[in-house]
TrEMBL record:
UniProt region (Disordered), positions on chain: 52-72
Keyword Metal-binding: no
Cited Gene3D superfamilies: Porin
PANTHER family named in the record: CHITOPORIN
Family classification: Belongs to the outer membrane porin (Opr) (TC 1.B.25) family.
Signal peptide feature range: 1-25
Gene Ontology cellular-component annotations: membrane
Name the record gives this protein: Outer membrane porin, OprD family
Signal as UniProt keyword: yes
Keywords recorded for this protein, A-Z: Signal, Transport
GO molecular function, a single term: porin activity
Provenance organism: Stutzerimonas stutzeri (Pseudomonas stutzeri)
Amino acid sequence: MNRQSCRWLWALPVACLPLVTAAGAQEQATGFVEDASWTLLNRTVHDRRDYRHGSLNGAARNATKPHGERNDRAEEWGYGLMGSYTSGFTQGTVGFGLDAHAYLGVKLDSGGGRAGKARLLAMDNEGHPQDEYARAGAAAKLRLSSTVLKYGEQRVKTPVFGSSDSRLLPETATGLSMTSQPWSNLTLSGGHFTESTDRNASSHDRGFVVNYSNARQGDSFDFLGANHDGATGLKLALYSARYDETWRQHYLGAVYAWPLDDEQALSFNVNVYRTQDTGEARSGDIDNATWSLMSTYHRGAHRISLGYQKVDGGTPFDYVTRGAIYLTNAVALSDFNGPNEASWQLRYDLAMSGYGIEGLSFSAAYIRGHGIDGSHADPNGGYAYLGYGRNGRHWERDLEARYVVQSGAAQGMTFSARYAVHRGNIDQTELDADQIRLAVEYPLQGRF
C-alpha cells in the first residue's frame, strides 16, 4: 500500500496495518459457541467525599443544583451488575464472532445535594440521582490469522484512548478497532472511534468524554500503536493519536525490570506524552509535553517507589476517555497534571502473602505538586475557565487496603478500602477533600 493510500485512510487507521496471513490464532478456532465464555460481575461501591474550607464555594458538589441546595459532602452508594459475553470464532480462513455486554446500576443511597461528583450514579436533568440506569451494546468481530477487527461498542485499553473501570460501571466506546500479532513479541493496534460513553451514563449519544477542556468536541478519535516485549525485562509502547480538529498526541512508554538476586529487584516505569493542537484547534493553542518516571525497589513482600512527573506547557495535560492517562502521579483525587506542574511521589506497597496471609495487601502514597502556572493559557481556549493561577501547589495522601478471597465458594471476591486526602492553594483547581471509598466485587464466569 502506498503512502497516499495510508494518508487517505487515516480516518480508518487499521487499514494501514498488516493482516498477517502466516499461521496464526485463527487456525486454532473451534467454533462460535465452542470457544464462547461469559462473565457476571457484581460490584458495590460507596464513595464519600467531605469538602473542606468551603472549597470554591461548593462549586463541585453538584454542578446542576443551585448553590443553596448543595452539600459540603458528596456521597454516593450504588450496586452494579455487569454481564459480558465473548463468543469464539467460526472455523475457516476468516472467523466471525460477537461480543456483547449489559450493565445495570442501582442507587442504594444518595441525594440531589450529595450526588454528581463521585460519578457512580446517573443523574437526571434536575440533578437528582436516578434510582437505576442501564445500557447495553455489542461488537461484531472477524479474525484472519492473528489479526482481529472489531466494530461496535467495546472496551479499549491503550495509553491514548482507554476505557476506565474505576467507578461502579465501566466506560465503553463505539467504533472500529484492530489488534494484530505478527510476531509473538509484537502487538499492533489501531482504532477509529466516534464516541465514548462515561461510566455513569445511560445513553450513547453524548460524544466523547474529555477530561478538562470545555470546548466544542471533535467528531472522531483515531490512533495507531505498537507494544513490544522482546528484550529481557523490557517492554516498550509507542502510540500516535488524533482527536478530530483539536489535537495530535504521541506517546512513548517503557517498563524495565532488573533482578538483583532472588529476593531483590529494581524496576523503572517511564511515560512520555506530546500533545499539540491541530485543525481548527477547538480547545485553543496547545503545546504540551508531559512525562513521568517511577523507580521501584522490590524486596520480598515490600515495594518502595519514588516517582517524578513534569508538565511543560501552558495548558494541563488533557486526554479523551477516563482511562487514557498512564502517568504515575495520576492518583485517587488528582492527576497532578496542571500547566507547568512538577510533582513527586513516595509510595510503599506491602503484600501480606510474604507473611502467610494470601490475598491481603496494603499501600500508602504521598504526592506533592508545585509550580503550577496557567497564566499563559489561550484566553479563548477550552482551559481558560479553569482559572489556574501563577503559583499553584497541592498534595495528596492515599491509603488503601485490599483483600482477595483465595479459595472456596467466594473465590475471587474482592474487598477494598481507601482513604484519600487532598489539599491545595487557590492557584490550582482541585478541591480540598477527604475521601472514603469502600468496594466489594464478586465475579462469576464460565464457558458454554
